[in-house]
Design goal:
Largest sheet: 7 strands, parallel
Order of helices and strands: EHHHEHHHEHEHHEHEHEHHHEEEHEHH
Oligomer: single chain
Number of helices: 17
Number of strands: 11
Bound molecules: nicotinamide-adenine-dinucleotide
Distance between the termini: 34 Å
Strand order of the largest sheet: 3-2-1-4-5-6-11
Shape: globular
């Protein structure tokens, strides 16, 4: 049965807390695509296709032609940052994209000027913030709501989504005030420091029924209070942490090794990067948040407790070092110690010279467009089908995350088929042979 999805009429505002490397690369990219001077490579919503029906039907429409997504020409950007640089200036400083490309969309980028950030230095000590709101957490949340509503009117938007592209916050765990909406709202009034800045934006968005996706590993919407609020206002949420670079490779390779019952004894992953994200992650408290997000992936895919002969001794180590000369061009090395038939040892080495924000930008775009689709389709709460894009997928309480990228893709595609009333695809395929048998 086809879901009743409201059409994507009018403008979609994508509002972004954190107009740094990822956000500016996404915005400049979308503006370049709109002008026809670039291609949105890496974006499943724009370039990907989806199989429908039986293999013999040969139906492979583009995702954007299959589900009613907002068109890029209808997208308008805005956001907040602790620095006052407009998106053109911030993109030039981030040095991800060539000045030639940025100059071609300069006028579109210059008009995106960051609103004052809801910020607390405690959560990102390495930033020297100048463009920030004052007041209590409650007041900041009210101001963010006001920012959103003003933006919506001024830009003539029909709908809004928020994508957190702000710095990784220091490591924190959910505490008592995060356990229910009532406690959270009281803590806002009390200006409780355990409410992180990203939670202020998330609260403001959800309160207004606006979808929120989290591109960083901090908890943000992954707390009971936010899940409760999302349900109450029928709003989709997704998180955490864009799956790019090394973790992307890990979730491509590890399912393959596990599929062939090859053993893994050790996986050493190291990274060097020199962008602002790297600077923030140079603080051990911020690194810890990232480390926790990256570490879970392998164990979830290989499940050492169920496969002790193959993965029981797995030693998984992750390092990230700040190395300014590399800028946004992160370099990662993986040394993987595997073993095969009769326990014979082998090694795999991966040296990925990646461009972090080039991989993250299309993810941020897809998350924004799919979150908007989810809202129009009446889906609310945790959108696990968006795990495909995320390093540390948020799931219902007690439900282990699915980190295998191939299963995540099947889940995403089947969700789209389900929404559009198409048959789900199980890949069983026995019916092709059954028909032949019936004919004979
Ligand atoms: N680039 C990737 O491949 C990748 C992958 C996964 C996750 N991420 C995460 O995405 C986020 C953005 O990455 P980036 O490379 O663009 O980093 P960045 O440092 O270039 O940009 C982050 C921006 O957020 C701003 N900021 C910090 N706190 C804020 C607040 N409270 N309100 C508003 N703005 C705030 C900073 O001033 C900065 O400009 C980081 O958390 C990063 O860990 C990035």
């Amino acid at each position: 049965m086809k879901t009743n999805i409201k059409p994507a009429d009018g403008k979609l505002g994508i509002l972004i807390p954190g107009l740094g490397a990822v956000a500016t690369t996404m915005i400049a990219g979308v503006e370049a695509v709109k002008k026809g001077i670039s291609q949105p490579i890496g974006s499943l919503t724009q370039m990907g296709s989806i199989r429908l029906g039986k293999r013999t039907e040969n139906r492979f429409p583009k995702v954007k032609d299959f589900v009613p997504l907002a068109a890029l020409n209808d997208v308008v950007f805005g956001g907040w940052d602790v620095y006052s640089d407009n998106v053109y200036e911030a993109a030039m400083k981030a040095k991800v994209l060539e000045p030639g490309l940025l100059n071609a969309v300069k006028s579109e980028l210059e008009v995106v000027v960051p609103m004052k950030a809801a910020f607390d230095q405690h959560y990102a000590k390495n930033l020297v913030a100048t463009n920030v709101k004052t007041g209590t957490r409650y007041e900041m949340a009210q101001e963010v709501m006001n920012d959103i509503l003003t933006f919506k009117v001024e830009k003539g938007c029909d709908r809004i989504v928020l994508i957190w592209c702000g710095s990784t916050e220091i490591y924190y765990e959910a505490s008592d005030i995060h356990q229910s909406l009532a406690k959270f709202e009281q803590a806002l009034l009390d200006d409780d420091k355990r409410i992180s800045p990203s939670m202020i934006y998330a609260y403001a968005a959800l309160k207004l029924g606006i979808p929120f996706a989290n591109g960083a590993p901090n908890l943000t919407v992954d707390i009971p209070a936010m899940i409760e609020l999302a349900k109450q206002t029928e709003t989709p949420i997704a998180g955490k942490d864009f799956k790019t670079g090394q973790t992307l490779m890990k979730t491509i390779l590890a399912p393959g090794l596990a599929a062939r019952s090859l053993g893994v004894k050790g996986w050493f992953s190291t990274n060097i990067l020199g962008n602002r994200d790297g600077l923030v992650l140079d603080d051990p408290d911020n690194f810890k948040t990232k480390e926790v997000s990256k570490l879970g992936v392998l164990e979830d895919i290989l499940r050492p407790e169920d496969n002790p002969e193959l993965y029981g001794d797995l030693y998984h180590k992750i390092r990230i070092d700040y190395y300014p000369p590399h800028g946004d061009n992160k370099e990662s090395w993986d040394n993987i110690d595997i073993f095969g038939w009769l326990g014979y040892k082998m090694q795999i080495k991966i040296n990925f010279l990646c461009r972090d924000s080039i991989l993250a930008a299309p993810i941020a775009l897809d998350l924004a467009l799919f979150s908007d689709l989810a809202k129009r389709a009446g889906m609310s709460g945790i959108q696990e089908w968006l795990s495909f894009y995320l390093k540390s997928p948020q799931t219902a309480e007690g439900l282990p995350p699915e980190n295998d990228i191939f299963k995540q893709l099947i889940k995403l595609q089947n969700t789209l088929r389900h929404l559009m009333g198409e048959d789900l695809i199980t890949h069983l395929g026995l019916d092709y042979y059954q028909e032949l048998v019936d004919v004979l």
